[in-house]
Amino acid sequence: MNIRLGTADLAKYPFLNEAAEYMHQTYFNLDDLNLPELGHIVERASNRLRSEIEHGRPDYTLERHEVEILTFLVGILIIKAINSDNLTKKHCLFEALRAEKFLVRDLKAQGELSTKRLLLFKIFKELLKMDVLPSLKYQLMFEVKVADYLKRSHLFHEQEWKLINRLVHDGRVFLDPDETVRLIRAEVANLLLERIRQMNPSHIPSTIREQAHILKASIPVASSKLDNSPLAFPPCISHALDEMTAGENLPHSARVMLATYMLAIGKNIEEIVSLFKNAPDYDERVSRYQVEHLAGERGSHVRYLVPSCAKLRNDGLCFATSQCDGLINPVQFGRAVKFNRGETNVSQR
Ligand code: SF4
Questions:
Q1: Residue 107 in contact with residue 120, Cβ under 8 Å?
Q2: Which of 11, 144, 244, 298 has a CA positioned 20 to 30 A from the CA of residue 4?
Q3: Considering the entire predicted model, what is its pTM?
Q4: Model confidence pLDDT, tens digit, residues 73-111
């Protein structure tokens, strides 16, 4: 069955090959972006990137397909001109989050099963080489092969994603629409990242270079006030910090570990919030609220403790070395290292 995407679908999923085909058919030329008639598209793409940088929020507004496809393209060109790996990763994650919202909505759509969902299965198949089928057993659930599930779910550290906690039947895992789409978020983001890295435009129009210049000046510089020498932090914390510096999207459990550990060793809220500046979805207001909450300054006013090594091992966040021998909590790490090096302090004698 040959299923064609409609223009409304291209607006939601502008990273699909059909969107590129559409642009090709319109004889679009990169220099057209210097025309005043397309100024609003350049401005829209630039505002979208600014919102990602400053507020850590994707833009979910949906315009006509021509506008969306061009905004997507201009966004990528600006990113290319800025040439920042962190920003590129951040943008790819936001594009994936944006698509995720539309995918969930489309998967939940009732009564249009024959077309809408078939289109989505086509997207899963063509883009991700993965079969997603509506479950005949459970209403509004989807089935994926165990192998497809495992290939993707290992990226999640939360217990609910472990296969043992899933409903499995006849070699297939059952997922609701949110879980189905969540399963592929990182993959869509990585796919976009690959495409942007491989993209080699013949030239960048002057209007795009101008916007890139303005946006580049507004990118926050990550604070590195913390002592991040290899011996300063336990391996789990060093690993999370390295990931964060590389602009990776840490799972919630890793962020809690990082923040509670920093609080436990006496870092202040300001220092901890600034640690998260490289996170793809960084929003200073949200980060501050969460850190203050963990510090017991909000909500229940309970100060959260650093999770135990056993819990972190279980969550896939432990990267133990021989220096971790005998530890039951990461906060003990510094003491163990000093002790091993014969640097016991007064309180330890
Ligand atoms: S053993 Fe504990 S301190 Fe060491 S890496 Fe694992 S969780 Fe961190």
A1: yes
A2: 144
A3: 0.64
A4: 999 999 999 988 878 888 888 888 888 888 888 777 755
